[in-house]
Amino acid sequence: MIGNVIAFRKFEPGGNLFGEEWVGLRYVKLFLNDPTFWNVFTNTLILGGLTLLFCFPLPIVLALLLNEVRRRALQRFLQSVTYLPHFLSIVIVAGLVMQITSIDGPINAFLGYIGSEKISFIQDPDWFRTIYVGSEVWQTVGWGTILYLAALTTIDDQLYEAARMDGAGRWRQIWHVTLPGIRPTAVTLLILNIGTFMAVGFEKVFLLYNPLTYPTADVISTYVYRMGLEASNFSYAAAIGLFEALVGLVLILSANVISRRTVGTSLW
């Protein structure tokens, strides 16, 4: 935390660890007036929003589907298959994505087979968000079901029995018993996800993007990397990183207050 002081001081490599002189909000004004920053800020919001939109509800849906599988052996097999991508290295996942979407990959081979024109997915900025979110769903949704499946085991079976006695079918039981039973877990995870909304996965974006896809792929974390480590503009990068952290803090505090006032569940 003390290192954040270089966001307000002129820092030179090899000099004072906490900067040479105070410059106030100079670096803050620089990135606020930088059109490139606002482009990466917009990309971060879009990628973060799409990731939250798909990667938050899908684990709930998958957990509900797995919970309806009555054969334990089949349920465990499906769980293992869906968990497996989580244990793959980001480098391996990025390599698989690049191979699958390459001009000679299986997707383009299929497009050529049906007579369609091949697409340079990994070099096309219009496809980057689809590729990123799709790979994120494949890698994280299965693992995300663990907490929801654990929450499902805490629901009293007598509630289901009472619902059946009242004439509720499976869909009614899910809506009136299952979903309210996992609501505290879902709300807690939603608040945490909103808190990390701005921290779009640096590693995967860094491995998948290239200068051709910067218009849609460049996010705050990769921009900070280039400004700080490649351009050695550490104070400017620190100011942007501090701004990102403050936005995340505001988001998680707001989400916590809204959750506490609307559904009665919050982190604190």
Tell me what you see in this structure.
This protein is mainly α and 268 residues long. Helix content is 69%, strand content 1%. The protein contains 13 helices and two strands; from the N terminus they run ββααααααααααααα. A two-stranded antiparallel sheet has the order 1-2. Helix 8 (157-165) crosses helix 9 (170-195) and helix 12 packs antiparallel against helix 13. The relative contact order is 0.14.
Quick overview of this protein structure:
Helix content is 69%, strand content 1%.
Number of helices: 13
Strand content: under 5%
How many angstroms separate the termini?
23 Å
- Please state the oligomeric state of the protein chains shown: single chain
Number of strands: 2
Sketch the major β-sheet.
Answer: 2 strands, antiparallel
In helices, the fraction of residues equals 55-70%
Order of helices and strands: EEHHHHHHHHHHHHH
List keywords for this structure.
13 helices; 268 residues; mainly alpha; flat; two-stranded antiparallel sheet; 69% helix
